[in-house]
Amino acid sequence: MASAEQEQRKTGHKNEKIGEVVSTKMAKTIVVEVTRRSAHPVYKRIVTKRKKFYAHDEQGSAKVGDMVRIVECRPLSRLKRWELGSIMRRAVQVGVERPALEESAVTRAEQTGKKKEPGITEEFRERRHDWDANDSGGGR
Question: Whole-angstrom Cα distance, residue 25 to residue 64?
């Protein structure tokens, strides 16, 4: 018990915050948005306040949408004063795999029996032909 108290005195109390990861685009850095609710000083209505913190993520384990705990630390850069403590809840990854998209496009092309240019509809192709035929090359 005494050793735990001494250890806490050495390190001191570190401030902790819980928030959602909104960006992981930087190397070893995540942006965490912490939301808190407080009463408006004049109108006493509950207002949601948000603040973004830059936190150090050494392993790059946090992903966008994760709920994380960040812990105060020494300044690591001009904006980073926090480090990733733990990932509390992983974000649900929603998406379709790329091969599945390609397979569905191939099967649709086979069903229609036509070879199509990607992104160009038949209607556009006809209009383009009409424009080329009517174009006199005179400007407007």
Answer: 10
Predicted TM-score (pTM) above 0.70: no
Q: What is the DSSP string of 55-67?
A: EE-SS----TT-E
Comma-separated ranges of CATH 2.40.50.140 domains in the chain: 2-89
Structure-block tokens of residue 109: 């092309």
* CATH number given to 2-89: 2.40.50.140
DSSP character string of 23-89: EEEETTEEEEEEEEEEE-TTT--EEEEEEEEEEE-SS----TT-EEEEEE-S--SSSEEEEEEEEEE
Question: How many Cα neighbours within 13 Å face the side chain of 114?
Answer: 7
Looking at residue 90, its amino acid is R
Query: 103: pLDDT confidence band, cut at 50, 70 and 90?
Result: low
Pairing assessment for the beta strands 16-26 and 67-72 based on DSSP bridges: antiparallel
